[in-house]
Amino acid sequence: MREDFIQSLNEELGADVLFGADIPARFRNDWAGLEPVTPLALVRPRTTEQISATLRLCDRFKISVVPQGGLTGLAGGARPIEGGVALSLDRMNGIDEIDPVMATMTVQAGTPLGVIQRAAEEAGLFFGLDLGARDSCVIGGNLSTNAGGNRVIRFGMAREHVLGLEVVLPDGTIVRSLNKMLKNNAGYDLKQLFIGSEGTLGIITRAVLRLQAKPAALASALCGCSGFPAMLELLKSARLRMGSALIAFEVMWPSFYDFMTGNLPELRRALSEPHGIYVLIEAGGRDADENRTMLEHILSDALEEGWVSDAVLSSSEREARELWAVRDSVSEYGRLMGPQTAFDVGLPTSVAGSVVSEIEAAMKNRWPDAIALSYGHIGDSNLHFVCNIPSLGKSQPHKEITELVFTAVGRAGGTISAEHGIGLLKKPYLKLSRTPEELALMERIKRAIDPNNILNTGKVLTI
Amino acid sequence: MREDFIQSLNEELGADVLFGADIPARFRNDWAGLEPVTPLALVRPRTTEQISATLRLCDRFKISVVPQGGLTGLAGGARPIEGGVALSLDRMNGIDEIDPVMATMTVQAGTPLGVIQRAAEEAGLFFGLDLGARDSCVIGGNLSTNAGGNRVIRFGMAREHVLGLEVVLPDGTIVRSLNKMLKNNAGYDLKQLFIGSEGTLGIITRAVLRLQAKPAALASALCGCSGFPAMLELLKSARLRMGSALIAFEVMWPSFYDFMTGNLPELRRALSEPHGIYVLIEAGGRDADENRTMLEHILSDALEEGWVSDAVLSSSEREARELWAVRDSVSEYGRLMGPQTAFDVGLPTSVAGSVVSEIEAAMKNRWPDAIALSYGHIGDSNLHFVCNIPSLGKSQPHKEITELVFTAVGRAGGTISAEHGIGLLKKPYLKLSRTPEELALMERIKRAIDPNNILNTGKVLTI
């Protein structure tokens, strides 16, 4: 059987397939930090038809297929499966078309996000999705995981940037729905099934993306607030008064802000005094003057109301970058902390403050030397925690920390994954965020579309 | 069997069920203009649990169920089925909660859109979905049909306003996903299945809606352009320069504009000369001055470039309403035209101009006295045609007109339904806008979720 499959795959894919030890190391894992896995075969197709042929074959032989994009996922969704096929989209890389009248871009799934952003700007437009891994991740992975990032409060999740998709189903059927129209209610909106289902229902091969007008100028402010309730008043005020000019509203707890500025001497503390919580507001109005005036008015009122204790407003791009430097220093974790347990949770905003206090206190209580840093996209109800217990060195109690955090999040009505997805790492905890009826419905859909359970088998769902 | 079902339904629903001749006339049809149908029973539940009990029973007895909202649909989706149950959501009417921190509103499915809009404004916020039937339609219907309207270019279709849903599946299972968070990637995004599937997969009973900051002021301009290509340049310029302040970009062909102003003497022609095409632009900036300045700059440049031949800019709300009066006079069709054949199609914007010319010419060619009015939301690629052949009186050739229009739309890569949905009326033509692979996938999903095919049986899909 296995030999028959290998022979057939060789016949179909020829030069675009590698086996076992010939598979380069980078295709054996993603960024989730799990043990690498060497799959039976790595396929790197150049066309949708080759992907269709691969899936048809795998479906016939009941061989699992793991779709791979930029391999930057943090939940293990793109880690290969032993005895299965890893199918990389890295050779399906390119922009098919930019349509300036429709303000759309049609791209192949393996195109890096950064390439798409720059091509949009060259065409005088703007692609509203942005995340730290922009030059490593690819759009197929962004869509499969419904990626988020810093600008969701203004431009929405990856899902909201998609008008059409080309997808290959597990049985090899190619479904071409490369719609460009903002309105299209001709039957079910099939693309929604494949966005955010982490490659378990189909492989996205092409996408029609919606482009936007570029914000003419950006300005930022760093604010110190007395605490969470004061910050919430600032959020409400900024949302109402800035409307669509509110591009980002990011929060850093002192745990995060003090650790970063304390350990990275190149980071300047732009506010002289310590505060209960720190906020970064980004404004994208129609010009630099408008941004400055808007932020000045909001901040002066907020100072008067006591919602903000102190604030700095950028007056140049360089100053704005400096204000963001602390928030952007998250890539330094590895060096500063050693092994971490990291979280990407969602919490109803009104209770997020008390949940963070509860988690930080519980960590310190259980492990007195625990480092637990809290920060996040509070405007989108999305928080990140990063934890390390220095005294435990390399043997971090990942499972115990995870249970502590997810239990608190589940109890507060939050979600165990706001933007990174479920993959392998969070699968055991999905039931904390979803009801049995929701899980049963997900499984029913999976069975209907992938009856042989070959696509990203064992990821997200427990079937 | 039938008697057993009736008895069980009476036992479960008691006072909330009516049979046959007792059913009021308004529940026997929607606005699509088809022949009324008297169903076996009308159920008007007050709770999600009653809906669950009804569906469980209907699934057991294999009785079709047609969910009904405000009955304003134009595709026959809410018309009852003979021998089936009509399930009206009209008693599930009410706002459960407004959350000012999350900027969300949780509503029951039978709540009228207008009530939701006004409640949002009273809370200092704004609900971005708007359509003509706002005080007759209800949110459950808006979501089931993924309604569009005038402001899609800025705020998106109904789908983009939803954060969470409560849904009852055909077997009576209640799926509660009343999520309020902007980011939630914990497994499949199940709500997407039920939005836009026209009540064929589940009955939406509650929704968490996303609210926005209210545009501080609105201003409008009416422009006359030499023709379609000039108008496209104006669209590109407005989109780039207005960004999120572009609230509406509506187009009226002379066929529509001249017919309306010619037949309704109360409508003032705000532009003195005739033009090749008319455009309404609505601006929603941060204040009235900004709107005026923004529109003035865009229009003066467009006049200079020759994209616009003449334009009027509103300087008060009253003037803005006057500019919109021609576009808003569509409710007068019935009186002015008699029986019509009406269309809601989507067309790739760059070819929309030639398709409209083709359709208007083909109509005149086939029926020399044909009236064919063209107008629409061109910023969303959405056009409406309304046709009447005066010499044929009450026996309009609906089928022949439909085939003429849909064939042209299908050939141009358009969609036979941009915002009204498929229902019964457009079902025979769905294959013009969808590939066999897309249709097969829709059917597979329908079978998986509604194996006994009881929910809105025979609507949308041919199974």
From TrEMBL, chains A, B:
Any one GO MF annotation of this record: FAD binding
Cofactor or coenzyme needed: FAD
A biological process term (GO) from this entry: respiratory electron transport chain
Keywords, ordered alphabetically: FAD, Flavoprotein, Oxidoreductase
One Pfam assignment: FAD_binding_4
Record InterPro entries: FAD-bd_oxidored_4_C, FAD-bd_PCMH, FAD-bd_PCMH-like_sf, FAD-bd_PCMH_sub2, FAD-linked_Oxase-like_C, FAD-oxidored/transferase_4, Oxid_FAD_bind_N, Vanillyl_alc_oxidase_C-sub2
Coiled-coil portions: none
Domain FAD-binding PCMH-type: 35-214
Gene3D superfamilies linked: 3.30.465.10, 3.30.70.2190, 3.30.70.2740, Vanillyl-alcohol Oxidase, Chain A, domain 4 (1.10.45.10)
Keyword flag Flavoprotein: yes
Protein family (similarity comment): Belongs to the FAD-binding oxidoreductase/transferase type 4 family.
Protein name: FAD/FMN-containing dehydrogenase
Species per Swiss-Prot/TrEMBL record: Rhizobium lusitanum
